Amino acid sequence: MMKNKIKFLVTVIFFLGALSLFRVDFVVFKAQAATDCDTLTGDEKTACEDEKDDIKDDIESLEKKLKKQESEKALLEQNLGKVQGAVYVTQKVIDDTQAQIDATEKSIKDKESNMVSLEESKERKKEALKKMIQENYLDSDQPFIFIFLDKDSFLEAVTSVDNLLRVNEEVLALMEDIKNDKESIRTEAEQLDTAKKEKEALVVAKEKQRVALENQADGIQEDVEEKEATIGELQRKLSKLQSEISLLTGKSYNAKDIKEAIEFASKNTGVPKGVLYGFLDQETSLGANTGQCVYKDVEKVSVSGYKKYGKKYQASIDRLYKRWDLFKDIVDELGYSKDKKVSCTIPFSKAGPNQGGAMGVAQFMSDTWLNASLQKQIISYTGHKNPDPWNLTDGVMAMAIKLRDAGATSDSKTAIRKAVINYYGAFSQGYYNNVVDWSKNYKRLFN
User: Fold this and answer.
1) Domains in the chain: how many in total?
2) Quick one: 336 and 362 in the same domain?
3) Deepest in the core among 42, 76, 176, 359, taking most CB within 10 A?
């Protein structure tokens, strides 16, 4: 008897100690637990309203910060555009100047080639004149003096000399022209070389300018990315506060039908409406068939199939029971029976084992549904404190979030194919064809 009394006293002391360590303000707790402050009275209602006002003030402050960050980001992007434009212009100047340098180098080479040609021509003329003189005088059979004593020889000699002098004058004049041309070409070549060096110096300067501009652009881009991160963080905080205010005011979003749920989810995630129709139709015929089995049925067929295919599927059996336990937590939290219907396990075939247990309109497995990030995002969009996979709004929103994260923010075939593999777990031609068909033709249903 004494032992029992002592045990009871210890228990009481422990309980009181726990209360002192984990004391929660009762009024605030009630305000947070309530979905609408109007349902409270007295001090509880006052505390709830005060909390609402505080959250509204925080939301207003965050919205101002968000607006400021977005404005600063827009200005940075504008400056980035200007700098990138300057980089483009600078690069064009570099390219044009380099083309001019190449053309100048070619002109210089042409001039040098012309000088060589003129020099060769000059040498040829000199050799021709030298040869003519040798042939007319040095190779004559009679002495030079006797040529002038003989009348005919004299006249011939005079004529030859006259011709030679004229040829000599022409050759000398030609050589002078060649000399002048060489000087002119040399001057032009020097001018071209000077121009080339100036352009090369310009290229070096512009290259430095381009590098400086690119570094400036990189710095601005980093600032833009930093602003984007800040904006993202502010948006997440704002979404969380808006979710909290929705819970306190009792304002949450509930779709009335498939069309409204899809439009709401598409607007908030960017996943095309046609893509959402296709996936929802493939999973549950637009919510008409969310499952025909209880988890006991799923267990029976799944475990039987796994055992048939060998011990290597023990991990799958373990996962089945883990999902079943999580399923029980979900239905308990939502107030549903543990016999809430889920998808059935399809009898195993040569294609391999499979597992039922998918819940609700979007057919989420319990472990996937309870992903912390997914839960937070659903709450932030719908304002529902406890997301429900059988609720049309929550289920479609969860599907849209998962598809968005899989890259399905367009209705391109590539995006749809990738999303099918991610959502279904493998590629199925029939599944893919159905989504593509819906994405192309869904508008006809509402015209």
Assistant:
1) 3
2) yes
3) 359
